[in-house]
Amino acid sequence: MKATKTAATGTAPAAKYDGFTDEERGAMKDRAAELKAATRRSPRGAKADEESAVLEKIAEMPEADRVMAERIHAIVKESAPELAPRLWYGMPAYTRDGKVLCFFQNSQKFKTRYATLGFNDVANLDDGTVWPTAYALTRLTADDEARIAALLKKAVS
After folding, report:
1. Where is composition skewed (Basic and acidic residues) in this entry (predicted)?
2. How much is the pTM?
């Protein structure tokens, strides 16, 4: 009879890694489709096509997330009109010079309890040695919208 080895601490072995979740695989498929669609678009209609795709994706969201995504989209257009909307891993995102500056991740995307407004490294949000790059959203108040507008203005400065 063979003896099996266990960890020295006596704890159970770590759970087996089964690869990507269904949500992660879905996001990767969304990204592949976005890249394929981008190569088919003409440069003249690309901006309008990208915004239409973003608005379609927002319209598909559950109501609570959809309402927030619509407001975020409007705030971006008002506060940082130089940003171009596009889809990024199936999420509404806003780019400068082709690089994603910020994005909205609805709560259903990865089955989380809140939506997220995230900023990538091209956003000019540096504040000392530590600063937030993602914000949890459960709903938007007028104060929240003003704060997001200020963040966007700083991010593109």
Report:
1. 22-34
2. 0.75
